[in-house]
Design goal:
about 120 residues, mainly beta, seven-stranded mixed β-sheet, four-stranded antiparallel β-sheet
């Protein structure tokens, strides 16, 4: 059974930093792309960042470019999201997701971790 478990969320002041972690288990994820998404109250879930299986290719939403960094530890099956210069509009539930390299969509999701940025 595939499990993605996020941690690291919390309350932080604007301008602060947080690092989210996502531990993947249940299968070998070395061929999987990993991603972070977020959903704010009353809004649709949106893409934040993604990283390919090797960790070389990374992509970001325009709203977080230059502030967030996605990385992964292939051996430990952990993906990270380092979030710097946080803004109140970054407040959301952040979800980790995994995508089989042969598929177009992210098929596995974590339960989410709350990030709240106060002004």
């Amino acid at each position: 059974q595939v499990q993605l478990v996020e941690s690291g969320g919390g309350l932080v002041q604007a301008g602060g930093s947080l690092r989210l972690s996502c531990v993947a288990s249940g299968r070998t994820f070395t061929s999987y792309a990993m991603g972070w998404f977020r959903q704010a109250p009353g809004k649709e879930r949106e893409f934040v960042a993604a990283i390919n299986w090797s960790g070389i290719e990374r992509s970001y939403a325009d709203s977080v470019k230059g502030r967030f960094t996605i990385s992964r530890d292939i051996i430990k099956n952990i993906v990270y999201l380092q979030m710097n210069s946080l803004k109140p509009e970054d407040t959301a539930v952040y979800y980790c997701a995994a995508r089989d390299g042969t598929k177009a969509d992210f098929g596995f999701w974590g339960q989410g971790t709350q990030v709240t940025v106060s002004s």
